[in-house]
Structure formats: structure tokens, C-alpha cells
């Protein structure tokens, strides 16, 4: 990547897992609004569920999630009871027992749940929702807290996919981020998963971590690829200590600079291609026969709060403290504080404290941004026609794109845009041109790469 492009476009911009993005959510969307939106849903629509398990055994210093460390199980069990109570409240607000074909356990660390509690959670969901027999049920898995019995319990409960957290295999990097996880621990868990029949395996890795180098990252990628996960997510570490105070435990002098981060990203992308992985959007990679790779090739890839996905359900219900949901009418976000979240649910109230209604204009721009993020290109005329917008709806944005086009980041053929190979890592900068909210307020985001 040319140094001048790095300086000009590696800006702090949203990750665009939604549009409008979370910093623009506000209190006008509350529990009463959420209840109305749920009740007005078309009963035939498919629904996806996201369950946020807001606890970990210990805090990883790089983490940007809403989570809390605990050595005791009692707080986890108490929290889970509240989450299941919320699941019942939402089910009662829906117009019917709606069909669910995707369930995702995130965190925090879902593998902190005891096997019996994981099974009980899925039993409750099946009681109140019409969970399809072939539903994709995914669990984010911490190899440090999952034993063979837990993996077997996951399989018995119907889990079909495990997303294995790794970040990096280098001991020095692991020490710097407070996540000691030897390679052998990860390899053993993946062996247990496959033996139990959970063969759909994702792996989460990071670049831009403290003390990481191109060479150490490539070594991690070689070890990861040897385990042959179907998907690899390679995220850029977002150093946001003003939002996550525990990140202050990472010395800023240990972090790679902008040029080094770019070198890591480019080298990693090339190495994964050599190992047989197809690039998916900005930061995901998949084996060619994986459903995500097929969706990418067919132009049917989607993006939500979990990142890239094959899930096309128009309703995502978020359960748990800080969980975010998406409905045709807009976005809703739950109470962040665990104590207030539990109190709200136990009072019989939906715990939504903020959100945003999506206008027709928002829906139009969301479609443009999603296609750019997923396909690395977009036909603006096609999107405008689908949304009933005027053919010249984006003339102002096309003018703003001229400098990016001149710099070789994006090409334009009429109203059809395509990211260049050099421009693909900076796709978020192109998306930002279509974001009419970005100039409002002072919300701070992560670097573009």
C-alpha cells in the first residue's frame, strides 16, 4: 500500500455492522417502542437470535466487548436466569411463535456456562420459539475454558458451529494481551469438536496486536491454517482505551505503527490465499466450499453485528446486557449495565434503553454500504431502483468519490462502483462517503485497517 494513501485514508471510521451505526442510537427508541415493533412484525418472517453472555473467566486486555470477569459461577447463573426471562418477554411480545434458523452465543465467553445451563438455554429457546431442526447454532468458544465434556454437551444440545477464539499463537503477544493459550490447547479443542460432530469451525485471529511482527503473524497463520478451520476472521486490533480502560494495560509503545499494521494485513491476506482461503469482504476468509465463500461469490453475503454472515433473516433479536437487535423498523440496544439489565427484566420490562428508527433514506444508504462491504462494489442504479429512489440519488456522493477514484481506490463505470485491489482494504472509507450521520457528534471509531 502506498504510504500517501495510508496517511490520507486510514481514518477512524465505523465498521459498518449496521447503518445507522451504534453511536447514533438514542433514547427515543425505548422498551415501549421495542414492544410495538415486535408486535407489528409479519409472523411469517424468519428470526435470528443473538445471546450475549456478559462474563469471562478473566479479562483479555485487547478485548473491546461488553464483558465482566468473574471467578465465581453464581453471578453467571443469575445473569443467565435474567437472559432467559428476557427471551420469554420478547416471545410474548411477538405476534406468534416465530421461526428461528440462526442462533449465536457471543460474549464475553459463552463457554463459561456449565453444560447443563447451555442445554437448558436451548431448551427454553425451543419452547418459546420455533427453532428449525436444521438451525445453525453457533457458539463462541474459549479453548482455555472448554473441556472435552463441555464440547460433547454442546454437540448433544444441537450446536452446529464453533467460533474458536485465538488472536495469536506467539507467547510474547499472548503475554502482552493477557491471554495465555498454547497452540496445543487450541488444537486439542478443535480435535474434540470434530470428534463430537461439530465440524463447522471458525477461528478468530488479530493483527496489530502488541509486539506482533509480520513474521510472527505469518507463523500464527500457518499454524491456524494447518488446523483447517472452515473460516478465519482476521480482525485489526482496535486500540480504544478511552472506551475500554483495561486496554491501558497495553503499552502503546508495543503496538505496531500504521505502516507495520498495513504490512501485517497485506502479508496475512496473501498467506491465507496461499493456504487455499478465499477472501470474504474486508476481514474474513473461508475455504472455497464453505457456505460463506459460496454466498460471497453469488452476491448474497450479508453483514450484521456479528460481522459477515450468510444469515439473511430480516429480524435479529439480541438478548442480554448490551445486546443489539435489528428489525425492519430500526435498531434496538439493551441496557449496558448488568445490574440495571437484570433489574429491568425482573420487573417484567424489555431492557431496551436506546436505538434508532430507520428511515427510507437510511434503508437506501444501508443497502449501498452493505453491498460495498460484502461485494467490494455496488450498482447504485440497481439499489436506487430497488428502493424506489431517484436515479440521481447519489450524485453528490459521486462527486465526493472523485478524489478516491483519482487515487486508484475505486473505479466508476456510470453508476457502478468497484473497489480496486489496492483500495479493498480501505472500503470503509468509501462507505463513509455515503454515511450522512458520520459528521454528527464526536463519536470515535477504530482505524480503517
Describe this structure in words.
Helix content is 37%, strand content 21%. The strands form 5 sheets. Strands 9-10-8-7-6-5-4-1-13 form a 9-stranded mixed sheet, with helices on both faces. It has a 3-stranded antiparallel sheet with strand order 14-15-16, with helices on one face. It starts with a helix and ends in a 16-residue tail after the last helix. With 449 residues, the protein is α/β, with parallel strands linked by helices. It has 16 helices and 19 strands. α3 packs across α11 (338-346), α4 runs parallel beside α5 and α8 packs parallel to α9. The chain has 2 domains: 18-319, tm_1862 like domain (pyruvate-formate lyase- activating enzyme); 359-449, Arc Repressor Mutant, subunit A.
Secondary-structure blueprint:
Elements: H1 3-9, H2 31-39, E1 47-53, E2 55-56, E3 68-69, H3 74-93, E4 99-107, H4 115-128, E5 130-141, H5 148-157, E6 161-167, H6 171-176, H7 183-196, E7 200-207, H8 214-226, E8 231-236, H9 258-274, E9 278-280, E10 284-286, H10 291-298, E11 302-304, E12 307-309, E13 315-319, E14 324-327, E15 330-334, H11 338-346, E16 352-357, H12 360-375, E17 377-379, H13 380-386, H14 395-400, H15 402-406, E18 410-413, E19 416-419, H16 427-433
Parallel strand pairs: 1-4, 1-13, 2-3, 4-5, 5-6, 6-7, 7-8
Antiparallel strand pairs: 8-10, 9-10, 11-12, 14-15, 15-16, 17-19, 18-19
Helix pairs in contact: 3-4, 3-11, 4-5, 5-7, 8-9, 12-16
Amino acid at each position: 500500500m502506498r504510504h500517501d494513501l495510508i496517511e490520507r485514508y486510514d481514518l477512524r471510521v465505523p465498521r459498518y455492522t449496521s447503518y445507522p451505526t451504534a453511536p447514533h442510537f438514542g433514547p427515543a427508541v425505548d422498551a415501549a417502542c421495542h414492544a410495538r415493533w415486535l408486535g407489528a412484525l409479519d409472523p411469517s418472517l424468519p428470526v435470528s437470535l443473538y445471546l450475549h453472555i456478559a462474563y469471562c473467566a478473566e479479562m483479555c486486555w485487547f478485548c473491546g466487548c461488553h464483558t465482566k470477569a468473574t471467578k465465581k459461577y453464581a453471578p453467571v447463573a443469575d445473569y443467565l436466569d435474567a437472559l432467559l426471562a428476557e427471551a420469554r418477554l420478547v416471545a410474548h411480545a411477538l405476534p406468534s411463535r416465530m421461526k428461528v434458523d440462526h442462533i449465536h452465543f457471543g460474549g464475553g465467553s459463552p463457554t463459561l456456562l456449565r453444560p447443563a445451563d447451555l442445554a437448558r438455554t436451548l431448551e427454553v429457546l425451543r419452547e418459546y420459539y420455533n427453532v428449525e431442526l436444521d438451525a445453525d447454532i453457533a457458539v463462541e468458544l474459549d479453548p482455555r475454558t472448554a473441556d472435552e465434556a463441555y464440547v460433547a454437551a454442546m454437540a448433544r444440545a444441537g450446536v452446529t458451529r464453533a467460533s474458536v477464539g485465538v488472536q495469536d499463537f506467539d507467547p510474547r503477544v499472548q503475554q502482552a494481551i493477557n491471554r495465555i493459550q498454547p497452540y496445543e490447547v487450541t488444537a486439542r479443542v478443535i480435535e474434540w469438536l470434530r470428534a463430537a460432530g461439530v465440524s463447522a469451525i471458525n477461528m478468530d485471529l488479530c493483527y496489530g496486536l502488541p509486539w506482533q511482527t509480520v513474521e510472527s503473524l505469518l507463523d500464527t497463520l500457518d499454524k491456524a491454517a494447518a488446523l483447517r478451520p472452515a473460516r478465519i476472521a482476521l480482525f485489526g486490533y482496535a486500540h480504544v482505551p478511552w472506551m475500554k480502560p483495561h486496554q491501558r494495560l497495553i503499552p502503546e509503545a508495543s503496538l505496531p505503527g500504521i505502516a507495520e499494521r498495513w504490512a501485517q494485513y497485506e502479508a496475512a491476506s496473501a498467506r491465507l490465499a496461499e493456504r487455499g482461503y478465499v477472501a470474504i469482504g474486508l476481514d474474513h476468509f473461508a475455504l472455497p466450499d464453505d457456505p460463506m465463500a459460496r454466498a460471497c461469490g453469488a452476491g448474497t453475503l450479508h453483514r450484521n453485528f456479528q460481522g459477515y454472515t450468510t444469515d439473511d433473516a430480516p429480524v435479529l433479536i439480541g438478548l442480554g446486557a448490551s445486546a443489539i437487535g435489528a428489525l425492519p423498523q430500526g435498531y434496538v440496544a439493551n441496557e449496558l449495565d448488568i445490574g440495571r439489565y437484570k433489574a429491568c427484566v425482573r420487573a417484567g420490562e424489555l431492557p431496551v434503553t436506546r436505538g434508532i428508527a430507520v428511515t427510507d433514506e437510511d434503508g437506501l444508504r444501508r443497502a449501498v454500504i452493505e453491498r460495498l462491504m460484502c461485494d467490494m462494489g455496488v450498482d447504485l442504479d440497481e439499489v436506487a431502483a430497488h428502493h424506489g429512489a431517484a436515479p440521481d440519488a447519489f450524485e453528490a456522493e459521486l462527486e465526493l468519490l472523485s478524489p478516491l477514484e483519482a487515487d486508484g481506490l475505486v473505479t466508476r463505470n456510470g453508476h457502478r462502483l468497484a473497489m480496486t485491489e489496492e483500495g479493498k482494504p480501505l472500503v470503509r472509507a468509501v462507505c463513509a462517503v455515503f454515511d450522512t450521520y458520520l459528521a454528527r457528534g464526536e463519536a470515535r471509531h477504530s482505524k480503517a485497517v
